[in-house]
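By convention, each integer encodes one residue's backbone shape. The lines below illustrate.
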Amino acid sequence: MLGLVLFFVGAVLCLNGLWLLGRIGDNEISIINYLVGGITLLACLFLAFGPGADAGSIKAAALTLLFTFTYLWVAANRTNGADGRGLGWFSLFVAITAVPVTLQTLAGANTTWGYWFAICWAAWAFLWFLFFVLLALKKPIAKFVGGVTLAEGVFTGWLPGYLLLNGLLQ
């Protein structure tokens, strides 16, 4: 399931990056955010409440919900015209949460994928912090955040998701 989720996380991050760079309009970007928010929500429900649910899968669901709510909040803000300050503060909460997740993932890494996944968590922590600075603190860094979002979409979502889906990464 991780390959599926990461593949679509890559898609939404790439498109959100393009949106921040002015390549996609406000009214259109909500579609992919609602879609990926819905996909990740379904994955979370399965992980947390499915037949094989255990402490590990519930933790995975909780952490994935950080992504889910981010995408749904972006979509809602584009639909209702909100200024994003609430999402910015939520992004700070997520960035802070992602730091110990990065350290735990790194401590448990014993494969190339494990180390890559730890680096992904560090990158996501940085990205969520940038969203805090952009949205809550209202700093004019949208182009920089757009470039980082696009790059992270490729290297932390799309590429590893594709490789996992094709059995090229374990």
User: Anything to note?
Assistant: The chain has a mean pLDDT of 96. The radius of gyration is 15 Å. The chain has six helices and no strands.
